[in-house]
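Escalation from tier 1.

The customer reports that the assembly of two entities below gives different structure tokens on two consecutive runs. Tier 1 could not reproduce it. I'm attaching the input and our single run for tier 2 to review.
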Amino acid sequence: MSDTYLKDVNFNSDGLVAAIAQDAATGRILMMAWMNREALTRTIALGEAVYFSRSRQKLWHKGESSGHTQKVSEIRLDCDGDLLCLQVDQAGGIACHTGRESCLYRVFKDGQWQTVDPVLKNPEDIYS
Amino acid sequence: MSDTYLKDVNFNSDGLVAAIAQDAATGRILMMAWMNREALTRTIALGEAVYFSRSRQKLWHKGESSGHTQKVSEIRLDCDGDLLCLQVDQAGGIACHTGRESCLYRVFKDGQWQTVDPVLKNPEDIYS
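Tier 1 run:
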């Protein structure tokens, strides 16, 4: 496949573009991570989300250690090319390393961030 | 109100945090923009989305010129504090400067990005 599509993506000065994963069934936003060119190319080829870990500075096939892979059914690009949105089927129903469905589990209320979503699985059991 | 909640937000080296606006009624992701401390504080105070424009390097009350304001009903913060998600009521049903509902109007298909969403209003009419 031609990689012309990569030219439409505005990778930043670190060679990265933001990628949101949205649950294809519920519409819930699960997480945001980053992709470099190789991560996007691999995501398309594999049909599962592959990000670039900024902390580990390497490709990160989401779920490689937890089993919580993300099957990708659609990828969208925004108007200025610096945001990707993935429609995903989240294996295990858990996207967050804390064992929650979504990384967005804190709601602003009464002047502070309040945790409103339950831990579905103990992280120690996820990564053991 | 105490600004303790700002300490939980991991603003990057430019003092910014990514913010996604999601349509509260449909779940559709409308756009991503950036906020600095003042933008987040004003968003909370005003109940409408206020971002920080990186290109213009100033606060940007979304809709100030287009009328397409975003009434905010919920703000969430992710696990590592570097992503905000706003549930919004999008005035005019148009978030994108191209006159489309969402900035994410291009879908990856057959090796390229294909525009799949209609222009609802001519941008020249929006910004005139």
